[in-house]
Specification:
Layout lengths: L5 H12 L24 H4 L5 E6 L1 H4 L10 H9 L2 E4 L5 H4 L9 H12 L3 E8 L6 H6 L5 H18 L6 E6 L19 H5 L4 H15 L4 E6 L7 H15 L6 E4 L2 E3 L8 H9 L4 E12 L9 H19 L4 E6 L9 H4 L3 E2 L12 H13 L9
Parallel strand pairs: 1-2, 1-9, 2-3, 3-4, 4-5, 5-6, 6-8, 7-8, 8-9
Antiparallel strand pairs: 8-10
Helix pairs in contact: 1-4, 8-10, 12-13, 13-15
The structure holds (3S,4R)-3-hydroxy-2-oxopiperidin-4-yl beta-D-xylopyranoside.
The site of (3S,4R)-3-hydroxy-2-oxopiperidin-4-yl beta-D-xylopyranoside has 7 residues, from loops.
């Protein structure tokens, strides 16, 4: 029989409503409005130096939010998580419908919800080869590097400036490296990414400047490189490690390295994740798990995940969380949305699903339970991590 979290979630969310709004909570502040005695909330059981986040699509879930009458989804989101990442609302296609038009409506709704629920916000993302509006794709076919730089600089300064003081970590550059299996192997995406393409003579120079523009617009935000297949020590993360060093030597205000954490039970778990995080931390960077989900492939003859698959999924989530907990420089651990009904996985990976930590009725899966236990074990109450 499933345990229901609903009454606890409602109690926790309601408690937060009576508190005055106080803007973005510092990473080290205990989440206000939530009793440390409430053992059912991830955010309450996390060490105070680790934010626990979820992706959320503000346009679909948070526009029209009424603190006096939250949806059940909004209650769970507020009760469980201390950090939010806009799943789509801060991407170029959402923010830039036209070259001279910025539309912040749904991103602003997300930030307002986060502040009302004493959550921090991870910005996502400023430079990516995907989800660019058609005008970028079209214009970029003839861009000179100077023209691309002008468009990117305006975007970064405007967007980061708009949210100045309200975002603690920004994924400045997302998925800028190809994979081993791509044409040409692991190298910067100087074909697919329109900005890197226009500046393919000196892509690192463009990256250094992108981070510099973001830093000037909001000096308090920690600025990240972020990618998938970037959990363990591998050829791609070796390339990131070399790039991070090159950027730091060039004076870039690079502050963090994010491993997205999109895993599938089709593949094994790379146990070198902690070692990978440690080498980036040794460069003085923060690290983060930014988009964790663990997809389950449907087995022949089954209509849903088997108990064994569900148990392995819990181990994989916990493996990523342990790597983060064991490295003090790991500042945030974010799951890529919940419940399964909101997950991007079935749309993009045919035959796979059930990737999130909550059932569609918001009852906890084993992955949720094991993460809650690990957070609780990592720290007495809300103290920072030890060691
Ligand atoms: C995904 C969203 O979840 C989907 O809703 C959208 O249709 C496509 O993008 N890596 C990233 C995220 O950095 O931005 C992607 O999010 C998932 C992969």
């Amino acid at each position: 029989m499933r345990r229901s979290m609903r009454s606890l979630l409602v109690a926790a969310a309601t408690a937060s409503l009576v508190l005055p709004l106080c803007g973005v909570t510092a990473a080290s502040a205990a989440p206000p409005g939530f009793s440390n005695a409430d053992k059912s909330a991830l955010r309450n059981q996390a060490p105070i130096d680790l934010a626990i986040g979820s992706a959320v699509w503000g346009k679909q879930q948070l526009v029209g939010y009424d603190p006096a009458d939250p949806t059940e989804y909004q209650q769970v989101l507020g009760a469980q998580f201390s950090s939010l990442t806009p799943e789509n609302d801060m991407k170029w296609d959402a923010l830039r419908p036209a070259p001279d038009v910025y539309d912040f409506a749904s991103a602003d709704a997300l930030v307002a919800y986060a502040q009302a629920n004493h959550q921090q916000v991870r910005g996502h993302t400023l430079l990516w080869h995907s989800q660019n509006p058609a005008w970028v794709t079209e214009a970029s076919t003839t861009w000179t590097c100077d023209e691309a730089r002008t468009v990117l600089e305006d975007h970064i300064r405007t967007v980061v400036g708009h949210f100045k003081g309200q975002i603690y970590e920004w994924d400045v550059a997302n998925e800028i490296f190809q994979d081993t299996w791509d044409n040409g192997g692991v190298r910067l995406r100087t074909e697919a990414n329109p900005f890197l393409k226009a500046c393919s003579d000196d892509p690192v120079g463009l990256l250094v400047d992108a981070f510099r523009w973001a830093h000037e617009a909001d000096p308090d935000a920690v600025l990240f490189l972020n990618d998938y297949n970037a959990e363990g020590v591998n050829e791609k993360t070796d390339a990131y490690y070399a790039l991070a060093q090159e950027m730091l030597v060039a004076g870039a205000p690079l502050g963090g390295f994010g491993a997205q954490g999109h895993l599938s039970l089709q593949y094994g778990f790379d146990t070198s994740m902690q070692e990978n995080f440690e080498r980036f931390a040794a460069l003085g960077l923060q690290v983060a798990v930014t988009e964790a989900d663990v997809r389950i492939p449907l087995l022949a003859g089954e209509t849903g995940p088997t108990p064994e698959q569900v148990a392995t999924q819990a181990e994989r989530y916990d493996g990523m969380l342990q790597a983060c907990l064991n490295v003090k420089a790991c500042s945030s651990f974010t799951v890529w949305g919940f419940p399964d009904a909101n997950s991007w996985v079935p749309d993009v990976f045919p035959g796979e699903g059930w990737a999130t930590i909550l059932e569609d009725d918001y009852s906890p899966k084993p992955a949720f339970d094991v993460m809650l236990r690990s957070l609780r074990d990592a720290t007495p109450g809300t103290s920072p991590r030890k060691g």
